[in-house]
Amino acid sequence: MNFKLKELTDEILGRKTNGNVKGHLYSVLIEGDEETLLEQFFDKMDESYDEDAKQIVVRLKTMITKTGFADYYFKKNEGNFGDHVVAFKQNDLRIYCIYIDHTAIIVGSGGVKKVRAYQDDPELNSEAEKVKQLAKIINQAMMVHDLTIDDNGVICDNSEEHNYLGN
Length: 167
Description:
Elements: E1 3-7, H1 9-13, E2 24-30, H2 37-44, H3 50-67, E3 85-90, E4 93-101, E5 104-112, H4 122-143, E6 147-149, E7 155-157
Parallel strand pairs: 2-5
Antiparallel strand pairs: 1-2, 3-4, 4-5, 6-7
């Protein structure tokens, strides 16, 4: 799976931050797609979930500007052991993410959870599995230092073979 990581911190806030934030928010742009997984998530929500979607944006803005991505905002262990896949939820909405630390998160996609376990819903399971696949690649890149995170949550691409950030 070929992809790029795209920082969406400024887009979520609707203004330039010049890096003066508590956390950096990234999403994944899969090769051939025009929108990141997070943008696709918001696009596919119907009007009945507008308020929950707005609350997700408000909460993300708060994390970016005030609190950072404290782990208690996320449901842990949504993926495989040690892959750092978590769920960010607002009522029935779930977004599957790769939790880096309190300064950085990679947001994937998700959907509406109306079942006990996401595995019981084919669409939600598909979105979670996509994030788990991405986590495997990203975690491997971090282990070999192709991707690193600085103290402020900025992801740095050190790979000579794969251009993770599209720079």
